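Two folds, back to back.
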Amino acid sequence: MDVWPPAFERHGAHASLVPLTAAHEADLVEAAADGELHRLWYTTVPAPEAVGAEIERRLALRRAGSMLPFAALTPDGKAVGMTTYMNIDAANRRLEIGSTWYRKSVQRTPLNTECKLMLLTHAFEELGCIAVEFRTHFMNHQSRRAIERLGAKLDGILRAHLIMANGTIRDTAVYSITAPEWPAVKANLEWKLEAPR
């Protein structure tokens, strides 16, 4: 049985997305150490020593058909983070873009905007998705602002949704972009990438 969606890669001016492999581990260990993002209690960024296990976890979910993981690369080919298509619902042509993290030094650069543009373009224009979701911890205000800057709208809050590794209860903010909204969202993302810095 074929797994949907099929693997693909995309290359842009600021970033590339390629299927995640074990070969990205060394770069991602370095990326995970930049800014010690794993210490943020409301995220699930792996600690540097846990990157190899996280890569294997994501690849196992790919084999099971519930995730398509990517390494995010800078133009020189260095892996600086991970992102995925996840919670894949092939029958209803829906998926979530999530489990995303980037090393501190590339945050607030065009890299994330271009990665999201490439993932959303593929989802809506190649896969025919009717909606793409984004989910984050209610308390992760940086992530929520970034999702809103993409043009996603808040669908609601799933209260007491998950138990975090530290034992706290996560309320999950659920956002989405729907197919009819995509042309305006795409135009805005392209404008952001072309705007003078």
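---
second:
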Amino acid sequence: MNTFPPILSEAELVLSEGALRVRRLSEQKLAVWDVLAAIDPKESILFLGGPSSRLSYLALAWDEVASAEVLVRQPEPPRGAESLGLKFSLGTLFLHSYDAWDERNAAQGARLRAFEIRRALVWDHSAGYVYLCEEDAWEACSTKLSGLLDKPLQQSLTSVTPSWTSTLDNAGYCDKVRRVIEDIKEGRYYQLNFLRYWRSSAPISREHWLKRMKAVSGPYGAWLDLPDLGVISFSPERFVSLTWEGAAAYLQTEPIKGTRAVVQDPHENAKALADLATHPKDAAELNMIIDLMRNDLQRVSEPRSVQVVDPGSVQSFQQVHHRIATIRSRLRSSVDWGEIWKALCPGGSITGAPKKEVQKAILELEGRARGYLMGHIFFLDRYTGLVDSSILIRTAQRCADHTWEYAAGSGLTIQSQVEEERAEVLAKARVILDES
């Protein structure tokens, strides 16, 4: 059994301004999945990344802070870490629930959570390096992974396959889809994202979740495992990112609409890709969300700065193909994160249009708060000034009795066909249901 290399013997890279200290090591000596497997089951996990991610991020020491402290902050420009070749170093991980700004449902939903990370491992898979980033005060943090870098690597994982049950049978799901289509015909709304939920019959081990993350996670995967919090996300969907050009901050959002399952037969897979690229229903669905996101961005952006960079391109992931658009804008000055998140959250791709009316209808149809399902994870870097985030699709959350629930949905429009929507939702549920 191998042990971790002496990471602290690597040369230090220290910023001339700020408290950030960085040590660099070859990724070959410190593999991300080995590190995750070595974490003691009694210790907490804050992890971002997946097999197809350019970056992976594991917090080693952090303090939880009141979410209100983060909401009043404004985006901060770079403080020099970009000179070290880093995209992310240390900053705030913010867990944003779907229901946070919904007055009807916020009390029943999940609360906002904020974690100030003071020590972390950052893998840059494209460059082949892993960075140990830390601030001087990290040893005083309330939560730490004790002695992780000195523990032996794990060579294999074993786990029990969990059993999942849908909380809505096929007939009930199809009836509700028909109800949505009738609402659209009557002019109540244009598009609605309707979820179907699954519940596990028992608690699920970390070993199982780690195996699933290695097998199926999208580039915006995340794993948060604390005594009072369990969220594991295999998400392929970026929500909004923030970058800087001089003193100007730019927002970019990338909504997903349209899904086809990845098929092993190359000919059939090519047909699925072509169908997704040309299907009028998927194009209409995405166009409506583009308009919605343009409107949301305009609420916090400079006038006339919102631009559709890409009206929709097909991208492939491990289990599904998606159609993804890109919209960009210049952020207004003196806007805080509370204003930004209230304008943009929850994302258009997991609500519908028009957003406020659709959120009312979703609550009527689903009869429950979504909590962190279809919410967001944001990472706000203190030193590079960069921000990135995901939509928590392909996500499971831990319940009070330590069982888990998972949700998958689709965007329903007037062109929706009931059986096609059911097939799309089941394709998205393969994350948990297909253990091959």
